[in-house]
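For practice. Supply one:
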Amino acid sequence: MKYFFYIGTGMQLCGLASVGLCFITGMQLGDYGKAELAQFIFGMFIFYVGNYVKGKYSTPS
């Protein structure tokens, strides 16, 4: 289904944005705390789940 492609892409974008915000926050503060680590792991998880959903369930048109 083509909707899984868009869902997976959206999840990848959210994960990438989360990791990017974690990186910027850590650079501004000069250190990464527990919140930034949790945000980084969550962002990576969402990105790779989106990659899996997009690759597994979307069909080429």
